[in-house]
Write a structure and sequence with these properties.
The complex is a heterodimer. By secondary structure, chain A is mainly alpha-helical. Chain A is elongated. Chain B starts with a strand and ends in a 6-residue tail after the last helix. Chain B is built from eleven helices and 14 strands. Classes of the chains: A mainly alpha, B alpha/beta.
Chain lengths: 405, 299
């Protein structure tokens, strides 16, 4: 089997089997689950929000329950039983329906006012029923009936949704920037610390007596890349399930309906070339983190190894936040082509439509060339850096490492 | 056969290796000895291609290829394993990097653990093992794939006599199946006991090399052990006797300035009578090491 693949699979399996990785991947879902759970508990129970329907006219009662759209319960058919249930707070109250020849009426009985939505539904049901009764009473000809049935027309001529567009852009930017920042910080730390710890344990001499430093280095990077792909896959799968749930849950369905346009735009901004920028950024940061990890000489210093990359990531993050409001500025345009910065700034421009797809592809090519170039060069000097174990300080370690191979 | 031909290596202004040349044949155990900093580990690192160097290193007449490294078993001076892995995972991972299938190596793990008397189960985490047992697991990692070239940097360091014997048995077993073995050691008794030949380095240069006995004999049989009722003063007065050291129980060690003086001393001391001991020997490896490795005569 290819030795690079052996290193890749070992790195991938060892990391993904760890509790820290499981927590990292599952944390957003735990958080969402907890939010839903708390909302579910806080939102009144469906049974409790039901309204009982009481009527001496059973056809009218059945028709109301089926057609009104109000959340009702069939449990309580008499006013006495419904009143008791109301007193016990099992239901919100009950509606007494009456049809006295020429008029239908409904009376709501309950401790609190009926909510406006249910009130409107009841009134709509009663109005429809009353119209039917009126038509019957008036004994109209079919033509007259048709004339009365004519409804007014209402059309919407929608303008450009500037408000929702702006919200979608802002949300997309923040979600993307925080996601990329967290992912880069996490994987930079994992990589730098793992490499530094390996170097500190001196196992590298044994490994390099079996495979070349380049193959080993590439295997490590691919292993970390597989981890991030796994994490993204879990997020996409979990995200799809959350969307399904949110669309149908009584807690979020209305909200989803209301903001479906914004949510759709945010999702399309995220699931685009912007995701590729995030992936390429992880690769680049992983390679540079491995380099930083290889410069440390003691296991105890593994924590320090990731600091340069984390500060670099913080710098690019702060810059993206600072220029969030001015995506068309010259600085953003220039830095959107510079690797490390481009992962934040080109998506910012794309979200705000200040960059074309051609510009994005050019920036992506520059980023990928940098990734490949860094992998090639660091793979070349990796052996020397990893075998240099004298404590000579940052520059001393680098100089000695470069002189070995 | 491993051939190291005229290799030199500089670290800045420090010349770590100077024109080092030696061979290790199949089925031969060679001891690489020298003081700390003499260039032993640098020599190993050059063979393993960890370093850029001048000169040439070949295996069976060819430059070493990636496939050749699958036939190497290497134990570095500083012991290290991956503490989060189990014993089996660690051994299998390193063996897979030597192109050994996991299904071939896994069944061997228990057997090798028994051979080295590792206290623990194959599924125990490395981090839970004692330092000594970790060292033995590392030896298993070095040898389990039956390498043809075995490089051991200070393999006896930290091992108690019982475990040293287990390692010696493993080294001798590898020699019997035809492996070329090279190891460094500060303990000359181990070298003398196990090695067929030695190379001694001093400041990166080869100062001695050859079969163990040839190396010793080239210093002449200048050590004379005898048991006699003569006093140290009487012995010191004999011709060509440089120094006399009393070893107790009428036993003395004489340092001769000329190895050919032995016969005359024998005649003088015995005067035709029986004496319990008269043994003329070359210096021990330990004595040679003290004299040659540091360039200082301790006598």
């Amino acid at each position: 089997m290819n030795k690079t693949w052996i290193v890749t699979s070992e790195t991938y399996l060892r990391q993904t089997k760890s509790w820290s990785f499981l927590l990292l991947v599952l944390m957003p879902f735990l958080f969402i689950g907890m939010t839903f759970g708390i909302s579910y508990v806080a939102t009144p129970n469906k049974d409790k929000s039901d309204i009982a329907v009481v009527s001496t006219n059973s056809a009218l009662r059945t028709s109301f329950i089926k057609q009104s759209g109000v959340a009702t319960t069939k449990k309580y058919a008499t006013a006495a039983a419904a009143q008791k249930a109301t007193n016990r707070s099992d239901i919100n109250g009950y509606v007494v329906l009456r049809a006295t020849g020429k008029q239908v009426s409904a009376t709501f009985n309950g401790p609190n006012e009926i909510n406006s939505g249910d009130q409107a539904k009841i009134q709509r049901f009663l109005a429809t029923l009353q119209t039917q009764l009126n038509v019957q009473q008036a004994k109209l000809s079919p033509t007259q009936q048709q004339t009365l049935a004519i409804q007014p027309k209402f059309k919407q001529q929608l303008q450009k949704k500037t408000a929702s567009d702006k919200a979608a852009k802002t949300i997309s930017f923040y979600v993307l920037v925080f996601f990329v920042y967290l992912i880069l910080t996490t994987y930079s730390s994992i990589t730098a610390q793992e490499i530094a710890a390996e170097k500190g344990t001196k196992i590298m001499e044994v490994i390099f007596s079996s495979t070349t430093p380049r193959k080993y280095f590439n295997g490590k990077v691919y292993g970390v890349l597989l981890m991030i792909v796994t994490q993204l896959f879990v997020y996409l799968l979990g995200g799809a399930l959350v969307v399904q749930f949110a669309q149908h849950s009584r807690i979020t369905a209305d909200l989803w309906q209301q903001y479906s346009s914004v949510i759709g735009k945010v999702l399309s901004n995220l699931l685009s070339i912007n995701l590729l920028f995030a992936l390429a950024a992880v690769l680049l940061y992983t390679v540079v983190s491995a380099f930083c990890g290889a410069l440390v000489t003691r296991v105890e210093d593994a924590g320090k190894a990731s600091q340069p990359v984390i500060y670099l990531n913080l710098l690019t993050f702060v810059m993206a936040m600072a220029f969030q409001g001015s995506p068309s500025s010259g600085v953003v345009t220039i830095f959107s082509y510079i690797p490390f910065f481009s992962s934040y700034l080109m998506p910012l421009r794309l979200i705000n439509a200040t960059a074309t797809m051609t510009e994005a592809v050019i920036s992506m090519i520059i980023l990928l060339v940098t990734v490949v170039g860094s992998m090639w060069y660091i793979g070349k000097i990796y052996g020397g850096l990893m075998l240099q174990t004298d404590e000579l300080g940052f520059w001393g370690n680098l100089k000695r490492g470069l002189s070995l191979k | 056969m491993l051939t190291v031909a005229h290799i030199s290596k500089n670290f800045g202004t420090l010349q770590a290796l100077k024109d080092v040349t030696f061979d290790v044949h199949d089925g031969e155990i060679m001891g690489l000895i020298g003081q700390n900093g003499a260039g032993k580990s640098t020599t190993f690192h050059s063979i393993l291609n960890f370093l850029k160097f001048d000169g040439q290193i070949t295996w069976n007449g060819q430059s070493l290829t990636a496939d050749d490294y699958n036939q190497i078993g290497y134990l570095p001076e500083e012991r290290s394993l991956m503490p989060k892995l189990t014993i089996t995972q660690q051994i299998v991972y390193l063996a897979r990097l030597k192109n050994q299938p996991a299904k071939v190596i896994k069944p061997k793990v228990s057997d090798w653990m028994q051979r080295f008397a590792v206290k623990g189960q194959p599924n125990d985490k490395i981090s839970k093992l004692s330092k000594g047992n970790q060292q033995k697991v590392q030896l298993i990692c070095t040898l389990i794939h039956d390498p043809q070239l075995i490089i051991l940097d200070e393999p006896f360091s930290g091992l108690d006599p019982v475990n040293s014997d287990l390692l010696k048995q493993a080294i001798i077993a590898a020699k019997k199946r035809g492996a070329a073995i090279i190891f460094s050691s500060h303990d000359m008794s181990n070298v003398e006991e196990v090695c067929d030949s030695l190379v001694m380095l001093r400041n990166g240069e080869v100062v001695l090399k050859g079969k163990i006995n040839d190396v010793r004999n080239q210093f002449g049989r200048t050590r004379l052990f005898l048991t006699t009722d003569w006093t140290a003063e009487q012995l010191a007065a004999l011709p060509n006797v440089g120094a006399v050291k009393s070893l107790g129980d009428q036993r003395c060690r004489l340092q001769l300035t000329d190895a050919n003086a032995g016969e005359a001393i024998f005649d003088a001391v015995t005067a035709g009578h029986y004496i319990q001991e008269f043994s003329q020997q070359p210096p021990t490896l330990d004595e040679i090491f003290r004299t040659e490795a540091g360039g200082v005569d301790h006598e």
